[in-house]
């Protein structure tokens, strides 16, 4: 059974940084594409960033491009989202998802997701 466990959220001031981690278990980590989504109460999930099975081809939403960096740590089966220059509008619950394919395609629905971790950006 695949499991995705996110951590690293917290409360930071505008301009601050956080590093989110998503530990993946139950599957062969290097065979699948992954993404990070975020969601605020009352709204649908918003895609943030994703990458291919081998860690190549990172992509970002316009809202976070230039501020966030996604990567894979294959030794730890972990998907990382490094967030810098955080803004109040980045406040959300962030969760990672797995796709049933190797190459990222956000049109394909993900087939596994974790509980997520809360990020709050406020002065």
Describe the protein in words.
By secondary structure, the protein is mainly β. Helices cover 0% and strands 46% of the residues. The chain contains no helices and 11 strands. The protein has strands spanning 3-7, 10-12, 18-25, 34-39, 46-51, 59-60, 68-73, 78-83, 92-98, 112-113, 117-121. The strands form 2 sheets. Strands 2, 4, 5, 6, 9, 10 and 11 form a 7-stranded mixed sheet that branches. It has a 4-stranded antiparallel sheet with strand order 1-3-8-7, with no helix packed on it. It is globular, with a radius of gyration of 13 Å. The model has no long low-confidence stretch (mean pLDDT 97).
Short description:
This protein is mainly beta. 0% of the residues lie in helices and 46% in strands. The strands form two sheets. Strands 2, 4, 5, 6, 9, 10 and 11 form a seven-stranded mixed β-sheet that branches. It has a four-stranded antiparallel β-sheet with strand order 1-3-8-7, with no helix packed on it.
Mean pLDDT: 97
- Gross morphology: globular
**Structural class computed from helices and strand pairing:** mainly beta
| Portion in beta strands | over 45%
Low-confidence stretches at least 5 residues in length (pLDDT < 50)? none
Largest sheet: 7 strands, mixed
Q: Give the terminus-to-terminus CA distance.
A: 40 Å
Number of helices: 0
Element-level helix/strand string: EEEEEEEEEEE
> How many beta-strand elements?
11
Taking all Cα atoms into account, the compactness measure Rg is 13 Å
- Give the helix proportion (percent range): under 10%
